[in-house]
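Re: [ENG-882] Designed sequences occasionally contain unexpected residues at chain ends

Forwarding the minimal case from QA. Structure tokens:
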């Protein structure tokens, strides 16, 4: 009995099968210091309710969820993660900008 590594190849007519490729490495996301967060207020498609939207961040979904949780606690408001953007209920642009600068992000206010 030999200890050969198992392969997924079941049958092949090729005498020299191609070598197995190594799994792809997940893309590295930039740190907070290298990113600019764009902050704007929006009320479209929300029945007139105002939300503060934070966009332009390139993180994995778990990091965005953790950031959303921190910002919701900081503002004392609800929020959601939609299409890679963080939405906080209410107009909290200044409070969110202060919190993000404290975390090392660069800030850009978009809109009026």
């Amino acid at each position: 009995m030999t200890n050969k590594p198992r392969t997924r190849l079941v049958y092949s007519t090729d005498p020299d099968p191609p070598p197995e490729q190594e799994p792809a490495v997940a893309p590295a996301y930039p740190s907070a210091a290298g990113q600019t967060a764009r902050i704007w207020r929006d009320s479209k498609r929300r029945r007139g309710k105002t939300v503060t939207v934070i966009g332009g961040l390139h993180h994995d979904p778990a990091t965005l969820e953790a950031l959303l949780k921190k910002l919701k606690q900081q503002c004392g408001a609800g929020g959601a993660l939609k299409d890679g953007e963080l939405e906080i209920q209410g107009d909290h642009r200044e409070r969110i900008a202060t919190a993000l600068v404290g975390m090392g992000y660069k800030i850009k206010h978009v809109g009026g």
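QA comment: On inspection the terminal residues look reasonable. The first helix runs from residue 61 to 75. Proposing we downgrade this to a documentation issue.
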